[in-house]
Amino acid sequence: MAATTGRSCLQYLIHLAQDNLDFRLPTPFWVLGELCEEDVHGIMTRSVCAKSAFELWGHGKTHCELKTSLLKYPKENMSPYTQKDSTYRINVYTFNKTLEFKDRIERIDALDYLSFDGTVNLKTPQHTFCLLEDYGTDPNNIPDQPLYVYFGRWIADGQRELIRSYSVKNRHFIGNTSMEACLSFIMANHAGVKKNDLVFDPFVGTGSLLIACSHFGAYVCGTDIDYNTIHGKGRSSRTNQKWRGPDENIRANLRQYGKEMTYVDVMVSDASKRIWRTGLHFDAIITDPPYGIRESTRRTGSHKDVTKPPEDYFGESHVPVSMAYHLSDIFADLLTFAAHHLVMGGRLVYWLPVHSPETVCV
Ligand SMILES: C[S@@+](CC[C@H](N)C(=O)[O-])C[C@H]1O[C@@H](n2cnc3c(N)ncnc32)[C@H](O)[C@@H]1O
């Protein structure tokens, strides 16, 4: 990606969300160069990790350094947004500290060396600018002065709202291992899922990953070894409900979000078995295999000699015997499956459990 606007020295500031992530970054602010504004808009229309993006006009360790940096910023980059006939507002955002109203006003007044010729409009400004102060990440040790300050023109907000609107708390059909919305969207983004893609989840469970993919317009399908999960039967995972209701299934989940038209189908099937015909290709395979912690890792089959072929059970009520499905086999099967059934350039996205005996503090 390269800068395509005529304006020089463009840098962008991304404000990343710290919550919903298991690790802590040393700062939630991330400076990016070598992009154009369309690239930034593209990122922000998909990202659930980014709160907002700004065209960075200046930055520094102190307000004094910020001033020097802002005064050096090319006037021709600023002028389209500071014209006399334009309207604007300036926000003050502080990370890890709350400023009183008077202090915010003081910060804005101190920016009087910037020549904004437009009119202030707090409700519907044409342009929004932001002074961002970073007070570090330690809530028990908040410095008096910010560790770093930035000033920029707001460009776009990320898709954090999706985390709330797709929360599993309000989802029609859930299970014990339903993947939370934020992580499902991150996976869909890693897979580069786009409109009209065909996406497959071989360990589909309650379909949380498919829901995120369907939000981006993909057609979705999946398999799971658990008959009850696929058919929405059995015990409910909700504390106040004993059994699943008649319409608790993946199709109903997609309907809840207005995406039923993207539902292809789900089937009961063992991911260790080859069931798909050769030549069938998915644009993405996105999955959360069982790790044997909250659900057992089983596959159909037996170590003993099987005397009766499966087709002989036709018409009978038959529960196949199962045997352990080791993690290494799960991942080997998944990679083999992806090698056969992904389009060229298609992506496989999955969780890999990692044992980390020590907590690493960043
Ligand atoms: C971690 S859960 C997936 C949860 C899912 N992402 C969701 O949001 O509900 C793993 C799923 O794999 C299924 N599973 C376990 N062994 C399997 C196998 N051999 N073949 C297919 N599915 C299997 C389990 O029934 C379970 O639903």
From TrEMBL:
Gene3D superfamilies: Vaccinia Virus protein VP39. Its EC number is 2.1.1.214. Keywords: Cytoplasm, Methyltransferase, RNA-binding, S-adenosyl-L-methionine, Transferase, tRNA processing, tRNA-binding. One of its GO terms (biological process) is methylation. It is found in: Cytoplasm. Residues 170-300 form the Ribosomal RNA large subunit methyltransferase K/L-like methyltransferase domain. It holds the Pfam family Tmrp11_N. It is an enzyme of class 2 (transferase). InterPro entries: DNA_methylase_N6_adenine_CS (IPR002052), RlmKL-like_Mtase (IPR000241), SAM-dependent_MTases_sf (IPR029063), TRMT11 (IPR016691), TRMT11_N (IPR059073). Catalytic subunit of the TRMT11-TRM112 methyltransferase complex, that specifically mediates the S-adenosyl-L-methionine-dependent N(2)-methylation of guanosine nucleotide at position 10 (m2G10) in tRNAs. This is one of the major tRNA (guanine-N(2))-methyltransferases. Belongs to the class I-like SAM-binding methyltransferase superfamily. TRM11 methyltransferase family. This is tRNA (guanine(10)-N(2))-methyltransferase TRMT11.
